[in-house]
From TrEMBL:
Keywords: Cell membrane, Membrane, Transmembrane, Transmembrane helix. One of its GO terms (cellular component) is plasma membrane. One of its GO terms (molecular function) is electron transfer activity. The keyword Cell membrane applies. Signal peptide: none annotated. Residues 7-182 form the Cytochrome b561 bacterial/Ni-hydrogenase domain. Gene3D superfamilies: Transmembrane di-heme cytochromes, Chain C. It is found in: Cell membrane. This is Hydrogenase.
Amino acid sequence: MTQLVKVWDVPTRLFHWALVILFCGMWYSGEQGGDWLQYHIWCGSALASLLLFRLIWGVIGSQTARFGNFIKGPRSIVRYLRGELTENEQPGHNPLGGLMVLAMLLALLAQVGTGLFAADVDSYLYDGPLAKLLSGDAAEAATSFHKGFFNVILGLVGLHLLAIIAYRLFKKNNLVKAMITGNKAIAGDVPRLEFAPAIIALVALLVSSGGIYVLLTRL
């Protein structure tokens, strides 16, 4: 018997869609260049706060949002590939999905991190907020990495979209809808999931935003 089970909490869903919006905004503003780079920097600073929040939420958040819940070792990955690990056991991210989440977060952290230290080598009007801490050569090296590594992120995004399509076609499960509503169609019984109070997420967001603000304005 298939039933709708609440799997994703509101903070995790809001993080996901805010990440999508900020990523698109950074992509567009970065491609436009010129005065659009100011918006690029603002989006990057907001994304840094969002990523720091997700790291905190991955430790203290709801059960399906915690890294320990979905980042698994080789044994679990093999079980999943063999079809032995059911969604009843792991209703959130499956082991491969967990690796994708980890890879995406690490890639975005590298991208945002280098962006904060990057130099505007064209007009020098829109250097990253922390570029002043590096020498000119080091800042330009950060810029070069920042531009080139974006292709890696695009590749990860492509893999993520392909996985969503494959999941829809072969498992008849709409992951996009699940990330909107928080509910996922799962066959059989599912153990009761734990969800952290929303106030904890709000405090985590305030801490992450405040930390990034201090980092960018006080150094």
